[in-house]
């Protein structure tokens, strides 16, 4: 019995230790076990204003530091998505948006890109590139009640197709 307990303790330790992704040496560590990833952001015309999750980070070209998981994916800091936007410089240009999934609540997670390029002259795609709609929830089909007969002023309905029309006989269609 001692050997079984010792073997299960060793197996549990190996399982817990083996699940952690190793962090490469010399990498800057961040909050919640994350590491730093630098993403270069360029636009078709330099000088466009860039936002990440609603906060201005500068004008293009710019380098954005993203704190992600050691496996190279976005970290869930409480949001389902990480959104990066580039805003146009002229009236005939378009706002460009990239949406990345963070893996919150067991949803898929995207890898952090090394570089993002926004072409301000292209019409945006709807939904934005990288966007995945939330999972669809399906409901069971409606339940129809064929219980005991119900009397409403002269007509009795008993299940589908049976009617009583006050003449004392039941008819089936």
Report strand %.
Answer: 25-35%
End-to-end C-alpha gap: 73 Å
What is the number of E strands? 11
Record the strand order, biggest sheet: 3-2-5-6
Radius of gyration: 30 Å
> How is the biggest beta sheet arranged?
4 strands, antiparallel
List the helices and strands in order.
Answer: HEEEEEEEEEEE
Overview of this protein structure:
This protein has one helix at residues 2-18, and strands at residues 35-43, 49-52, 55-59, 62-68, 81-86, 96-101, 115-118, 150-152, 155-157, 162-164, 170-172. It has 173 residues and is mainly beta. It has a domain at 24-118. A four-stranded antiparallel sheet has the order 3-2-5-6, with no helix packed on it. A four-stranded antiparallel sheet has the order 8-9-10-11, with no helix packed on it. The longest helix is centred in the first third of the chain and has 17 residues, at 2-18. The radius of gyration is 30 Å and the shape is flat. The mean pLDDT is 77.
Give the gist of this structure.
This protein is mainly beta and 173 residues long. Helices cover 10% and strands 31% of the residues. A hairpin with a 4-residue loop joins strand 9 and strand 10.
Main traits of this protein?
173 residues, mainly beta, four-stranded antiparallel beta sheet, flat
SSE layout:
Layout: H1 2-18, E1 35-43, E2 49-52, E3 55-59, E4 62-68, E5 81-86, E6 96-101, E7 115-118, E8 150-152, E9 155-157, E10 162-164, E11 170-172
Parallel strand pairs: 1-7
Antiparallel strand pairs: 1-4, 2-3, 2-5, 5-6, 8-9, 9-10, 10-11
């Amino acid at each position: 019995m001692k050997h079984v307990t010792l073997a299960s303790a060793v197996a549990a330790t190996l399982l817990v230790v083996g699940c952690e992704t190793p962090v490469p040496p010399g990498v800057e560590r961040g909050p919640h076990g994350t590491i730093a990833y630098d993403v270069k952001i360029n636009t078709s015309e330099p000088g466009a204003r860039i936002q990440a999750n609603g906060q201005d980070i500068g004008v293009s070209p710019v380098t954005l530091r993203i704190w992600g998981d050691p496996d190279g994916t976005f970290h869930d800091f409480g949001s389902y998505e990480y959104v990066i936007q580039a805003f146009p410089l002229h009236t005939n240009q378009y706002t460009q948006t990239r949406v990345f999934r963070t893996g919150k609540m067991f949803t898929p997670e995207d890898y952090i890109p090394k570089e993002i390029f926004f072409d301000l002259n292209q019409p945006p795609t709807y939904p934005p590139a990288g966007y995945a709609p939330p999972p669809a929830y399906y409901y069971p089909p409606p339940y129809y009640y064929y219980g005991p007969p119900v009397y409403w002023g002269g007509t009795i309905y008993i299940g589908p197709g049976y009617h009583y029309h006050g003449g004392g006989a039941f008819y089936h269609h």
